Amino acid sequence: MMALAVLAALSWAFLLLAHGRFWQGGPVLAPAHPAASPAVDVVVPARDEAEGIGDALRSLLAQDYTGPLRIIVVDDGSTDGTGAIARGLPGILVLDGQPRPPGWSGKLWAVHQGAAHTEAGLILLTDADIVHDPAHLRTLVAKAEAGGLDLVSEMVELRCRSLAERALVPAFVFFFQLLYPFARVNDPTRGTAAAAGGTMLLRRRALDRIGGIASIRGALIDDVALAAAVKRGGRIWLGHSSTARSVRPYPGAADIWRMVARTAYVQLRHSPLILAGTVAGLALVWLAPPGLALFGQGPARWLGALAWAGSMLSFLPTLRRFRLSPLWALALPGIACFYLAATLGSAWDHHRGRGTVWKRRAYQDASA
After folding, report:
1. In 82-180, which residue ranges form alpha helices assigned H by DSSP?
2. What pLDDT, in 10s, does the model give residues 298-335?
3. Do β-strands 199-203 and 151-157 pair in parallel, antiparallel, or remain unpaired?
4. Are 18 and 295 in contact (CB under 8 A)?
5. How confident is the model at residue 355 (pLDDT cuts 50, 70, 90)?
6. How would you class 261 by CB atoms within 10 Å of its CB: exposed for 0-12, middle for 13-18, buried for 19 or more?
């Protein structure tokens, strides 16, 4: 028990002190004006997004950006009237998505078709459930131009209203930051690369340099794959947004489970060995500290309590971002169990050949 306590305490000491300040509340892009306003083309892939696409597109049309702006929507086989809603708004080019070729993920095939119709030097890739404040685009362009960046991406504010969302959505952001510390992503000397798919402002020359969207055609975690490709030879930046938010609802825990399970085992490269290591690591970091603090004895108990306190403190900046009570930090071990179970469920479905169904598409591997 003492050895387990020491390992847990050392693990949290490393995470808090030497893991890219993953727990921090920033960086956050404040609204800004670019020195110049180059042309921007916006590509919005959309599949069954009738509930939110109207608000998303109207917010893009309302941008106070002074440069040339064009909006392209790719209706990716929707059956709920998504395309009709987009066509009902002025100044938007709507493309009917073509059948997906083998080897392409659905979203990337839609993005590829939209990107083929772009001409501007900057391309904003954004989802159909993102609502943008009027200052959002100019803020992204200002960051890209000031830093000479090839890719600027933001983790937009996620919806956090239902009980399931309050319990599980902040932890989704928290665990993403743990996997991809933003400070390391933004450090050009580090190999860590990531992006948030809801908002990615990309330079055309960088897209051409990596061979276009086709170079990552089979990726299911497409935002991270794009960031990794661009960072090899370019500069990227990832932060939190103060001017964009997602309107996609997750009413129940099952909805969040499906969202996590869609790519959880992909993240582990479909490897049972990596899965086993992940389970062991999560148990050491999230479950051992409270177990030792509550049921251990002597120094093991105090080390467990110290590690548990460190884990809860690390979660507080994320809770503040979502304007939630710090008492939610007490639930972090249970929340971690939920994400661990969803990862195991993702692996189980993969090995049974079921894959994951997302928007009427079955995902089993990169060529599914």
Report:
1. 82-87, 106-115, 136-147, 163-179
2. 999 999 999 999 999 999 999 999 999 999 999 999 99
3. antiparallel
4. no
5. low
6. buried
Euclidean distance between CA atoms 106 and 40, whole angstroms: 24
Amino acid letter at 76?
D
The dihedral over CA atoms of 287, 288, 291, 292, expressed in degrees to the nearest 10, equals -160
Look at the block and give the residue holding tokens 């933003």: 182
The 10 Å Cβ neighbour count of residue 24 is 15
261 pLDDT higher than 80 = yes
What are the residues whose beta carbons fall under 8 Å from the beta carbon of 145, sequence distance 6 or more? 34, 35, 36, 38
Give the mean model confidence (pLDDT) for residues 50-62.
97
What residue spans define the domains of the chain? 2-21+255-363, 28-251
Cβ-based neighbours of 14, under 8 Å, separated by 6 or more = none
Record the tokens describing residue 61, joined without a space: 């049309």
In CATH terms, 28-251 corresponds, of 3.90.550.10, 3.40.640.10, 3.40.50.300, 3.30.465.10, to: 3.90.550.10
CB 57 within 8 A of CB 86: yes
The mean of the pLDDT values for the chain is 94
